[in-house]
Design a protein that fits this description.
By secondary structure, the chain is an alpha/beta fold. Helix content is about 30%, strand content about 25%. The longest helix is centred in the first third of the chain and has 21 residues.
Length: about 450
């Protein structure tokens, strides 16, 4: 009889499990620097902004507190999606007039990021498999059929699939297949974009935390531990860390997500349970679960339980109880793989802004963009590039206009507090229990 896996021997990391740390860190900023545009934050958005501006001949500098790509950009599950975060029925209720524009934006974002990977020749193990939102109960399946109609009416490139015919494990009954996008190694993507940025004319300063951003009559002044930057305009690409800057929009809330990776699994074992598709799997729970195979033969799974931010953000190891719950969820979804041992776990902070990515001008000459909202991997480079084009003098692109806001939609602080996030997890577990098949 196979032994059930536990978290014994699992390695907890305060760093991403996708790649090693780079050793060629850029120098910290010292003294005074002047430029046309300064970008705060070296994630996928910030790097894309700086790279595009450099390509267009703009004098640009980028400031990153750690190293470029160390945060959410390299700590996620690696789903390049053409979809929006949030339930389509709720999105239609809130954004009925703009839903078609938003769906178009999501599809264009995936195509753009695919093209960027090719143009920059980034080896990030990209596999254009698409992704599937898969039901684990008949109730979820009925809801997904309704969502399918909404998405198709809005122009999404999707189709409804049967789980068995599509090559999903038996737990997953079927659902919405998003044809665009696929799976990749986000750590390698971030490092590849970092390499392209370092090779450009942009000035990159790592290990340079921004302490204050203050507009003045001639532009903006940024204070850092070793000096300051004077620029005409600034782009805040600070994601979950936006709350550390007083000038950043207030509607951005950080939450912690966790990931677990198993030991390598024999492909024949996966075929035996019907898992022949390489497509990424996402569940339609209130707090989604994700499951995917990796090129190194492992299984990766995550989210399921979000954690509210403490008073100070920072890299740390995932919570043991959250990881144990993720492992339990994996064993429930894959009961015949109970012998497969989890090897390591990591996590990171992501920004939430209700249901959509947002960009805008928070104050005169102070622009911002936030896209890591659960589906931000494809959208981040796209938003960054569109914003850079606007700063370089182009008319605002229709896709950027679709998400443009002076400030993010307001979300009450309790909406993503510890109590609310725990309630979402509880509701999902009750739903699972009520819909459990014999």
């Amino acid at each position: 009889m196979a032994k059930s896996a536990s978290t014994d021997g699992l390695t907890y990391s305060a760093f991403t499990g996708w790649t090693d740390r780079p050793t060629d860190l850029a120098p910290a900023l010292e003294g005074e620097v002047r430029c046309d545009v300064v970008v705060v934050g070296g994630g996928l958005v910030g790097m894309a902004v700086a790279l595009r501006l450099a390509e267009r001949g703009v004098d640009v500098a980028l400031l990153e507190g750690g190293y470029c790509g160390w945060g959410a950009s390299s700590r996620n599950a690696g789903y390049l999606s053409n979809a929006l975060a949030g339930d389509p029925q709720l999105l239609r209720l809130l954004y009925r007039r703009r839903l078609r524009d938003l769906v178009r934006y999501g599809g264009n974002a995936a195509e753009f990021t695919e093209g960027l990977i090719g143009r920059l020749a980034i080896d990030c193990e990209y596999d254009p498999t698409g992704n599937v939102i898969a039901a684990v109960s008949t109730g979820q399946l009925r809801r997904l059929r309704k969502n399918m109609g909404i998405l198709r009416d809005a122009g999404a490139d999707v189709e409804f699939v049967d789980g068995r015919d599509f090559g999903l494990p038996g737990t997953f009954l079927g659902g919405i297949f998003e044809r665009g996008g696929g799976l990749l190694n986000p750590g390698k993507l971030a490092l590849g974009l970092r390499a392209a940025l370092r090779a450009s004319s942009a000035r990159v300063f790592e290990r340079t935390a921004v302490e204050a951003v203050e507009p003045d009559g001639a532009g903006v002044v940024l204070s850092v531990p070793g000096g300051r930057v004077r620029a005409e305009r600034v782009v805040l690409a600070t994601n979950a860390h936006s709350r550390d800057l007083e000038i950043a929009p207030s509607g951005i809330t950080p939450v912690w997500t966790s990931l677990v990776e198993t030991e390598p699994v024999d492909p024949d074992r996966l075929a035996a349970i019907g898992w022949t598709s390489r497509t990424g799997i996402i569940t339609p729970h209130a707090i989604l679960e994700n499951y995917r195979r990796t090129p190194r033969g492992t299984i990766m799974f995550g989210t399921r339980r979000l954690q509210a931010a403490p008073s100070a953000l920072g890299a740390h190891e995932p919570d043991r109880a959250v990881v144990a719950d993720l492992v339990q969820g994996f064993q429930e979804r894959f009961p015949s793989l109970g012998y497969v041992a989890p090897q390591r776990a990591w996590g990171g902070w992501v920004a939430m802004t209700s249901f959509l990515p947002v960009a805008g001008e928070a104050a005169k000459n102070v622009f911002y963009a936030v896209s890591c909202n659960g589906h931000g991997l494809s959208q981040s480079p796209y938003i960054g590039t569109l914003l850079a084009d606007r700063l370089a003098g182009d008319e605002i692109h229709d896709d950027l206009r679709a998400i443009w806001r002076p400030r993010p939609p307001y979300m009450p602080s309790f909406a993503l507090g510890a109590t609310a996030l725990k309630a979402g997890w509880v509701l999902d577990r009750i739903s699972d229990r009520l819909s459990r098949r014999p």
